[in-house]
Amino acid sequence: MKRWRDRRKDSQPSYAPHPRYGTGLQYTNLSVREEDLKASYWRFRDETLFPETALRANTTAQGYAVFPRPFYVDILKTCRDCDRQFIFYAREQKYWFETLGFWIDADCVRCAECRLRRRRIDRVRRRFGERRRLPNPDAGTLRRLVEDALFLLRERAIVDLQKVAEVKNRALRELPNEPVTRQLTHALLQARRVEAEIERDFINRD
User: Fold this and answer.
1) Is 43 exposed, middle or buried (0-12, 13-18, 19+ CB in 10 A)?
2) What's the count of helices (H) and strands (E) in the chain, helices before strands?
3) How deeply is 73 buried, as exposed, middle or buried, from its count of CB atoms within 10 A (0-12, 13-18, 19+)?
4) CA distances from 198 to 82, 100, 175, 194, 206 (A)
5) How many whole angstroms separate alpha carbon 129 and alpha carbon 157?
6) 68: which of 2, 10, 18, 42 is 20 to 30 A away, CA to CA?
7) Strand order across the 48-49 sheet
């Protein structure tokens, strides 16, 4: 016969996955009432909490705060980017606030997958800017620059299409037979069509 905790794991809904904690709640042996948790920290008042996952915090390891967090608890959140529900895990909170030294009132607004995606986009965007400024990149560097431009276009993570057009034109001159050059040319054409449609809709609304 399964223990009660095992049955709870079987019945809980599935959330956006976390690379370390998976998709389920992380139960603990600490017994704290939900009303006590909500009263312990101001941000908890309007959150959906899972009291059976509570961890006692080491407030001396937290950064300075007028109102420290005495507990961490799994919190149900909705991702700002993908709209999926995810869990901001108590163990992750402990790592944020006691190991990494994050500001105690910092909040988690994106699921783990979207956070990783945004970090990758930020890395590629910085790299794209650095490579684009090189006056005479070699063929390998130019190919990687084209790949970065293509990635940012597909992720809708670049606003200035003229910068992409400059990279595309350079690739057409120096890497005309590369598949990635053709892919970037096609992706840029699609992006400009979408931009034109948005502009037409905006004008028609006025």
Assistant:
1) middle
2) 7, 5
3) buried
4) 22, 42, 32, 6, 13
5) 13
6) 18
7) 48-49, 75-78, 85-88
Query: How many CB atoms are closer than 10 A to CB 160?
Result: 8
CA atoms of 5 and 7, how far apart (whole Å): 5
Contact assessment for residue 61 and residue 100, using Cβ atoms and an 8 Å cutoff: no
- The answer to whether the CB of 123 falls within 8 A of the CB of 115 is no
Cα(110)–Cα(92) distance, rounded to whole angstroms? 13
Q: Which residues of 122-151 are buried (b: 16+ CB within 10 A; e: fewer)?
A: eebbeebeebbeeeebeeeebbebbbbbbb
pLDDT tens track of the chain, all 206 residues?
A: 333 344 454 456 679 999 999 999 999 999 999 999 999 999 999 999 999 999 999 999 998 888 899 999 999 999 999 999 999 999 999 999 999 999 999 999 999 999 999 999 999 999 999 999 999 999 999 999 999 999 999 999 988 999 999 999 999 999 999 999 999 999 999 999 887 777 776 666 65
Residue range 138-165, pLDDT digits in tens: 999 999 999 999 999 999 998 899 999 9
| C-alpha to C-alpha distance for 16 and 86, rounded to whole angstroms | 5
What 3-state class would DSSP assign to 55? strand
Distance CA 53, CA 74 (A): 6
Place of tokens 């700002």: 80
Residue for token pair 């130019």 = 142
